[in-house]
Amino acid sequence: DAGVIQSPRHEVTEMGQEVTLRCKPISGHDYLFWYRQTMMRGLELLIYFNNNVPIDDSGMPEDRFSAKMPNASFSTLKIQPSEPRDSAVYFCASHRGGLAGVGQETQYFGPGTRLLVL
Amino acid sequence: AQKVTQAQTEISVVEKEDVTLDCVYETRDTTYYLFWYKQPPSGELVFLIRRNSFDEQNEISGRYSWNFQKSTSSFNFTITASQVVDSAVYFCALSEQRTGANSKLTFGKGITLSVRP
Fold this sequence. Notes:
The complex is a heterodimer.
Chain A: E1 5-7, E2 10-13, E3 19-24, E4 31-38, E5 42-50, E6 53-56, E7 65-71, E8 74-79, E9 88-95, E10 108-109, E11 113-117
Parallel strand pairs in A: 2-11
Antiparallel strand pairs in A: 1-3, 3-8, 4-5, 4-9, 5-6, 7-8, 9-10, 9-11
Chain B: E1 3-5, E2 10-14, E3 19-21, E4 24-26, E5 32-39, E6 46-52, E7 59-61, E8 64-69, E9 74-79, E10 88-96, E11 106-107, E12 111-116
Parallel strand pairs in B: 2-12
Antiparallel strand pairs in B: 1-4, 3-9, 5-6, 5-10, 7-8, 8-9, 10-11, 10-12
């Protein structure tokens, strides 16, 4: 089975532009997570979905960030307008729902999108 | 609140040496899960192991072994006879099991391991 797929793998844009990152979770996985990795803050969870519904978006930095999951096989993370401090690697991860809760299942990560905002 | 501390930031060893990566965690929950992920220079995050809080048995997988000790809230990772291909950033992570509630995977800052030939 294919792993988590992310596109694009690299994105270079100018400040003020809109950026859209895409993710296809592993088939059958009903939880999807967006993370951001920076040198300063490490890996931090931005938002996660269960059955296409956003469950916890407390990690989303500000209103410039938005995420959607229109169906079970596709999610987007959008930054509008982008700023240089948004430069980071953005990871998408997915797992199947556990019987007793979210935390017990292993998250599998995509290859990441390396974003550079000039 | 849950927290993961990886006090070592960078470790450099010579090939064939054994190396231990430390991980200390904090949680108020009695049921929780611990993970190790590897991030090689190519950048992807590779799952290595998951452990639940009720299973303190140490695990060995080839040259990798993990030592889980609840008494010290530690989940250390040892690589035996290290190889250059082991060079990567290693992350320890924690999640709490809360039925029907939000649960997050909290990562440590990571340990950069360099294995020199």
